[in-house]
């Protein structure tokens, strides 16, 4: 990892940017480093004044102090520039995918005209065929095609995009590999997904997060306190007949204010978002990354997250008096309007049993929906339906006045106890059997949930399955709770209930029916394969479309918060050693009793002050890899994490400066620099 951090291609532009960031307009956004810059200007003026006054010894001292104060500011700027540089490198790769192309726009009369992709506007309809790039973001309204999205995701395997369902969204810059699709454009120029990605990873629209703002206020408050303390030190020194120069006062101030975290704070936040980008996750704001670190409740869709892929039809269980091949035919007919993978698997299984199904021309079809949880067909006086048990019970009772036979209910219970999903099939108002849909829990998912539990996070499985099926899969996967037969409004209510209790909620999704819940959640991870509505609702997008990545995102968020807290602790703790270095040096001549505070045995007052200032600058550059990489994170309880970091970064923040300043003092004295 360190080799990528110190990549020469990143270091060279970062050095240049470090000097550009010396502009007061830029540094004013970082109050701590702005104070250091003002101090650098004052000591530089004092240096030239000493030179002009012929004070050679004083000029050498003030010149060295000025040089290291400027280095302090430059090192802080360098840390931020390095973090930004990694994002700019990613943005450059994305820019290569954003090219001007020709688009075939379909007019109202069906006529096709060729226009530049930049001329397309929201609502335009374009036709894209095999080998052609998709000119802009949109939604497939006709056809199905294989699409190469490697320019966006880095994944070479093509994906299927089709009209209807949850895989209709396409991204400008990707290429159609086969077939033909008709796309409705959903964005205007400059507003595309690629444009937003470039702006976000480049940091052009980065805003400070609430916690970052709060910490900045705290650091500013500490800076003001130390500034007042330093200013009032001058009258005390005069009363004690001690000459304290401006250079010494500035050195004291810079060493006491939290320059370490002040110089690294911005880099930590940028690096947190960069770690997500490296995992092909795009965070719409730093606030989303930060919120991931505070998550208490994790809502996980069963399909694709806890189980492998989609449920597949594995068996038909007919009711008494019904033949299996007849049940297969009825089930396939009822599934003709079900475009979900489960519905298609029913048709596939029926075909394997030799039941080829043709939809009659006069048929009236009823597509599957999340609300009804049913699909069906009416043809030639026959009525076929297929759906979840409770939905079918209600439908049969309300339309035909019939109930589900005991044998069918027993088959449903048997499938549910095995962790499968039963779907009841009916024909002409009578339940004729059950379809067995089977789920497979992902290997190792139980161990991952155990790790999350140690972190103090509650996991809840969201599924449309009935209570028995959901309970069986939840027990096998090891989640804390589950929400069965979940409708969009149920997910939304669950999130709001937890938020009302003061909890932070994260969830992943990809469908239009997930959009309200994704918008409500504190962290909403949307799959890149999801619908346009879902992608607009969430605050993170996973380009790999891996729902389990929500777990990694939570860990990255926690690592960000822990890194920021650890370096803040270290920064404040190392002020202790610098206090013991500078205060005895200031009053060494007039108050010899303060010599007892020189526990490090520093050679001279000048070498003590210079050593503290040099250490204060060098510690920033030494901590840049840690700020960019993040503090190592292992799933533990919050109390254990706190104890560990206080011990390492609190106690270490006190001890390391004592050792570092002493070593620097020996070098400075040995070289005769002070």
Can you give a write-up of this model?
- The protein is α+β, with helices and mostly antiparallel strands and 674 residues long.
- It has 25 helices and 20 strands.
- A hairpin with a 5-residue loop joins β1 and β2 (112-116).
- α5 packs parallel to α24 and α16 packs parallel to α18 (467-477).
- The longest helix has 42 residues, at 56-97.
- The mean pLDDT is 84.
Question: Which key terms come to mind for this protein?
Answer:
single chain, about 675 residues, 6-stranded antiparallel β-sheet
Would you spell out the secondary-structure blueprint of this structure?
Layout: H1 2-5, H2 8-20, H3 24-27, H4 31-52, H5 56-97, E1 102-106, E2 112-116, E3 125-129, E4 138-148, H6 150-153, E5 159-162, E6 169-170, E7 175-185, H7 193-202, H8 210-239, H9 246-256, H10 259-278, E8 281-283, H11 286-293, E9 297-301, H12 302-306, E10 312-318, H13 324-334, H14 341-352, E11 364-366, E12 374-379, E13 382-387, H15 389-399, H16 406-417, E14 421-427, E15 430-438, H17 445-454, E16 458-462, H18 467-477, E17 481-483, H19 488-500, E18 505-509, H20 515-520, E19 523-527, H21 532-537, E20 540-542, H22 549-573, H23 575-586, H24 605-629, H25 638-671
Parallel strand pairs: 9-16, 9-18, 16-17, 18-19, 19-20
Antiparallel strand pairs: 1-2, 3-7, 4-5, 4-6, 4-7, 8-20, 10-15, 11-12, 12-13, 13-14, 14-15
Helix pairs in contact: 2-5, 4-5, 4-9, 5-7, 5-10, 5-24, 8-9, 9-23, 9-24, 10-22, 10-24, 11-22, 13-14, 16-18, 22-25, 23-24, 23-25, 24-25
